[in-house]
Structures are given as structure tokens and as C-alpha cells.
Amino acid sequence: MKKLFTSVILLISAIVLCTLTAGAEVYGDYEYIVIRDGTVKITGYTGSAAELEIPAEIDGKKVTVIGRSAFSECEELTSVTIPEGVTIIGICAFCNCPSLQTLNIAKSVRIIENAAFSDCTALTSVVIPDGVEIIKHGAFSDCSSLRSVTLSDSVQVIETYAFLNCSSLKSIRIPDTVLGIEQEAFSKGVKFICGTRTAGERYAKVYGLDYVLEDRSSVDEGDFDYRLVNEETISILGYNGENKDMVIPREIDGRTVVEISENAFYESNITSAVIPEGVKYIGSAAFAFCEQLKSVTIPKTVTETGDAVFSHCYSLEKVNMPASLTIPGHMFFCCESLKEITIGSDVISPFAFSGCTALEKVILSDNVTSIKENAFSDCILLKEVILPDSLTELQSWAFNGCTSLETIRLPKNLTAENFGRVFQYDYTTSPFEKCTSLETIEVDPENKEFYSIDGVLFAAEGNAILIYPEGKKDAVYQIPDGTKTIGEFSSFGYSIFEYNEHLEKIVLPKSVIAIGNRAFASLKGEKCIEFHSGMIDNMRISHSAFNQSPDIIIRCVDNSAAYRYAVMHEKNYELFEGGSESAFVPIIIVISVITILLIIVAIVIIKKRKRNLKLK
After folding, report:
1. d(CA 113, CA 9)
2. pLDDT of 594 higher than 90
């Protein structure tokens, strides 16, 4: 299974690499492209150095991404240093480098992608820097000489096959911050060093690994276990009481409670929790899977929390918390009874409220500047959200699957650069995908980067159509004249009309010059796409523009770009002569008017001649 996964990753990487490196620039032994934010993605390496320090800058531009398979199969490479500034190490970036022994990863790295260092059979040690939250599928799989792995406290998820078949790895410390370890992330034979009631301990028990619990100097004080932070303060580790309405005391044994540790109440059967004044930090997954928890009170002194604090608290209905408290990733993930929330945090992190299926009302303060990917995905009862003027970033799938959302208004400060971004990658998709009731997208008139016509969203740059609302009920859509591009807003593209089930016909104006990747992809049923007769030589159509739309009908003029595309890609098409139907009626009117005028002129001339004859 794992070998199949790696093979598929390599095949996909090779295909994508061929696509991405087309038109790449060259800097010494490096091939690269400049991405949207003006920084550099290294896409290939043609050198043969044994010890390699990847440059931090190329042609004066900062290197931020190591692209897919950029250094794969570099057989001579024994040592590599990834410079500060790099945030992403791409899929298979260094896979199959059999001589690689030493790896120095910069602290700036945030994402280590699938199979990034897979099959580096000489690699002996790895330090995962602070800032990396997820170790992706097969990232270090089949590194048979890997003996030492140091995980930073930022790591939250270790995905499937991450360290599978690392036969020399005999032990590893799993930080308390790790929330989840997926099946077959490690091979049998590795020993875990971990904390009690942590993801490390749970994984070891489930999959039969040896493990040693770290001594956290815990103290049993009545209903609470705790550890000393210093001589005057303590951190709560767990609860042993019988009262389901849990009230944490301000002091225990004369020391102030200032923290709630990671996983402290994980899977507890408490029904309510009151956190005292003085607590400053709540650790990751502290209340996760407390399935009977209905209400929580968080004091103003809490300024920071870890991820997934209340994840899967299915009964949670009410949260009293400081409005300005930062909302980290997965904080209320799958809290299926939460109906209303007020948020003053400047950033709403990924999946923060995803799966909150009872959520009906969200109040966002003017402090909110960013809503990250999937922040409110699958909130199926959410009908309306007022996005504040302070919002400058709205990432991909932010409201994905919000099937009751009917209208949305984009605020004046939202920028195209920060709209629909997919994680930290250089492509975009809709924040409102699968919002099946969404009929109207409005835009603040002061926004200079977006505009809306009849509820459809456009980008000012390039007059590009971006999002056609999925709930819009028109059977025929005439794309406004002046629109230049369809589906060209993103480097990978997304299907603009895919989820709208009402459309039967889309009419393109003469002004369109480019149709991008997947612009009309995945359309269901016999939808007609009608091209203006003037679209003959000045239009570019991406090869994937109509992917997975087997029943669409392309209506066009013979020998036009659309006709040639339909023939080449074996799409259904119809030909019409002289122009589109939309232009036919105005032409008849013009001809009729001209005919009437000619008749009138002829009558005038005849009468004038008769008068002249009488005078003679």
C-alpha cells in the first residue's frame, strides 16, 4: 500500500513538474519561477554538488518554496542546507537522494509536503523546526538509516506513512502538542517517549508500540493533577473529581493556576467548566472530545490557546470568552450544538468552526483581518455573515459547504492577492464552494479590486469573472460585455459554474480573450456554451477548460478557436452562421430600420419628381 502511494506521488509529481517548469527561468544550476507574491519557487536542479547550500535569494528575489521533485534523485548529494525564508518543501522535493546524510532545515519552514524526503536511505538525523505543524504523508518514509528525529512543540499532526520503514529509528519523543498520529505513521519497533493522556500514548496503546511516560512532576491535589511551572504557579494536568460541573480553583496548595496543559481534560465526562481569573494559557486539545460538555467560561486573563481546544465537543452550546481571544486552528471543530459566537480575534484560523452544524449566527468585530481556509466550512445553518471592513484576507473554502448562506458582501479592504488562497500555495479557489443557496455576491463600492454585476463576482484586474453563485437560479447567463477572462484568476484554476444546477446556457461576449484551467469543468447535463461569432483568432482556451463535462455543447462559428477546440478534444458542438442568436435579433432590427429609411427616401424622391414635372 505504501509503495503504491509513493509511486502515485512520484507519477503525479512528474506530470505536475513538467507543467510547472514550462517557461522556468535559469539561475546557475537552478531552475525557478517567480510566484504571485514576487518570491521564487525553485522547480529544478541540474548540478551535481555533494554539499549544497540552497541560495536564499535568486536574482534579488527571496526563495520561499522548494518545488515538487526539484532535487529528487540527486545521487551525489550528501548534505543540504535549506535557507531561512523558505516556508514550503514541496512534494518529493528531495525524494530518492540515496547519498543524503545531513539535512539542515531552516526555522522558517512551515510545511514539509508528501514524500519530501522519502527513500533518502543514508539520512541519519532530522530536526523538525519550530513552526512546522503537520508532517505530511510519507515525508520521511523508507529512510532506513534514520536514527534520530527531533520533533518541535509546534508539530500537531503526523500523517500516514510519515516515518514508515525507518528501520533504524528505535525511539522518538512525541511532544504533548501533537494532537493526532495517523495509522502506519511509524513502523513497529520504535519506542515512544510521551506524556500521559497524550496522542503519543494513545497511538502506542492502539498499535502495540512500547512507550515510556515522561515524568512531568505531577502532583495529585484533591480533584486535580498539576505540575509546577515555578515556585509560585502551576499548570493543571487533569481532573479526577466526580462533580461534572467542574470549577477550577484560582489557587492550589498556595500556588496560582496559570495554565491548563495540553490534553488536560481530553475525553472527560464533565458537563460544564469554569476557568478562573489568572489562567493565561489553555493548551492544545485541553477539552477535546468532552462529548457531554455544554458550557465553558473563559476569563479575560486568557490570552493564548493551543489548537483544537474544544474539538469534537458535540454538546457545547455556550462559550463565554474574551472577544479578542485568538481563534487558533480547529478550536471549535465539530462542535455540533454551538449556535452563536462573537469573534474579536484578528485571525480566524483554519477549520476553527468547521463542522459546527448548528451555528446560525456569527458576529465578527472590526478587529478581524483574516479568515483562513475552511474556517466555517460545513456550517450548514449559517444564513448570513457580515464581513467587516477590517477584513483583508479571505482564504480558500472559508465558507465551503455553508448550504444555507444566501448572500455575502465583500468589504472594501479585501484584496485579490489574499482572496481564495489555498494554504501557502500559489493558486486559488472559491471561499464559497458548495454554498448551494448562495444567490448573490455583493462588493463594497469602495473596493478597487473586485466588482459585482447581477450578483456575480469579477476581478477588476483583467475584467475576470471569478465566482458564479451556485444558488443563482437563472437558466441562461449572458456574461457581460467587457469581460476578458474566464477562469484565469488562479494559476491552477477552478470550475466557475460547476455546482450551479440551474444553468442551461452560458453566452460569452466578443470581449473574452482567454478561458483558463477548468473554467467550465465538471458541468453536469447538456449545458450549452455559446461563443460569439467574433471569437475566431484572438482567444486562448486552456486544454482543461471543459474537463469532465462530457455532455456540454459548444455552440460556435465554423473554423473558430472554439470549433477547433471542440474537434481536438472531441466535445459536442453545434455550428451557426453569421453570429450568435443574441446578436441576430439586433441585426434584423438594424436591417429593418435601414429598409424603412430607404423606402421613405424613395417616396420623397418620387414625390419631388412629380412636382417638378407639374411645374414644367
Report:
1. 11
2. no
